From TrEMBL:
Isomerase in keyword set: no
Protein known as: PepSY domain-containing protein
PROSITE patterns (alphabetical): PROKAR_LIPOPROTEIN
Residues of the PepSY domain: 153-206
Record carries keyword Signal: yes
Keyword set, alphabetical order: Signal
Range of residues in the leader sequence: 1-25
Originating organism: Curtobacterium citreum
Region (Disordered): 35-66, 116-138
Gene3D superfamilies associated with the record: 3.10.450.40, 3.30.505.20
Length: 214
């Protein structure tokens, strides 16, 4: 009898242990599920955060690139106009038709003024370049402007960009209080128009003010 009782006790322990196994397994599975869910949420949040950060950085780069490239078409129009004439000095470049075209004035060595129109990219000539018959006074003025302009139109564009980041809508040589200047307008990212004059010889700023005219 004692022997049979001793055998029964181990059997009871084994039964209890076996009965506890499903509970332990269930708890283990629940713990894994909770950990996986938590990790998944954390990973998703991290991925979302990283995605937002990347998108923001890309948007910022795009904006910067757009600003830096805003006057590429204008400079292309200058090169296209000069090439179409064959040689000469660009004394004026201006956006037309709300930026869908450019008008460029090129003066050749004989003092003749050539008017060239380009497309929006500045890479193609539209129509036929027009030649304006210049009288003695016009030729003298052109010669004065060209002689005084140590800064060519490309350097003038750079000088304007140093003052204001934005699109140059017009730029040309003119006389201001007896001094030859590059004068023009720059429209910044907020839409504000800045009217600027710089000395065509030294590049010094002569005037720089906000244009409030509509």
């Amino acid at each position: 009898m004692t022997f049979r009782t001793q055998l029964q006790k181990p059997s009871a322990r084994r039964v209890a242990a076996l009965a506890a196994l499903p509970v332990v397994a269930a708890l283990a599975l629940t713990g894994c599920s909770t950990d996986d869910t938590a990790n998944g949420s954390s990973d998703s949040a991290a991925s979302s955060s990283n995605g937002s950060s990347t998108t923001g950085a890309t948007g910022g780069d795009s904006t910067t690139a757009a600003s830096a490239a805003s006057n590429d078409a204008l400079l292309a129009a200058v090169a296209t106009a000069r090439k179409s004439v064959g040689s000469g000095t660009v004394i004026s470049v201006e956006q037309e038709q709300r930026g869908s075209a450019y008008e460029v004035l090129v003066v050749t060595k004989d003092g003749t003024e050539h008017e060239v129109h380009t497309d929006a990219d500045g890479t193609g000539v539209t129509g036929t370049p027009q030649t304006e018959t210049a009288d003695a006074d016009d030729r003298a003025e052109h010669e004065r402007f060209v002689a005084a302009a140590d800064l060519d139109v490309s350097k003038a564009v750079s000088a304007f960009e140093d003052l204001h980041a934005g699109a140059i809508t017009e730029l040309g040589l003119d006389d201001h209080l007896g001094k030859v200047v590059w004068e023009g307008d720059v429209v910044d990212g907020s839409g504000t128009k800045h009217s600027v004059r710089i000395d065509a010889g030294s590049g010094d700023v002569v005037t720089d003010q906000v244009d409030t005219d509509d």
